[in-house]
SHKB1 protein (Eurystomus gularis), 169 residues
Amino acid sequence: PRMKETSGWQQVFSSPRLDWVIERVALNAKVLGGALGDHDKMVAAASCSEIILWALQADGNGSEIGVFHLGVLVEALFFVGNQLIATSHTGKIGVWNAVTKHWQIQDVVPINSYDAAGTFLLLGCNNGSIYYVDVQKFPLRMKDNDLLVTELYRDPTEDAVTALSVYLT
């Protein structure tokens, strides 16, 4: 829904009927100058390990961008800029890149916490490390085409990073 001061709440999109219970929802309201042009509003829904992504048009219609599989239970679903991110505590992240229209799954250390700051996705892991990915650049390693996940910090005692809060000025 959206709020219009003169008329109250209005429905802007209704998905087709799904055969599964929606467990997670993510909404990307507007990315100025986004690579999607008219498709700069997106909504994603997840259940178990499946994710459906729609592009929303101004007339209230939506077109399915795709159905993606994380391979494990999706425990967090959110946008960083116009990139869709899905994570699981088991140590998997999935990223849908709006520019390349590419879905990438990456195995990392089991994830306890996450936050996004600007175009950076930060992952707090159970080995005491904080990793980051610049999802706007969507960096891939040349040797194996894996997502480039960089270690930012490692706790010397390897205590799990159970919470992250990042603020960039």
Notes: DSSP finds no helices and 14 strands in the chain. Residues 24-154 form a domain with the Methylamine Dehydrogenase; Chain H fold (CATH 2.130.10.10). The longest strand covers residues 62-69.
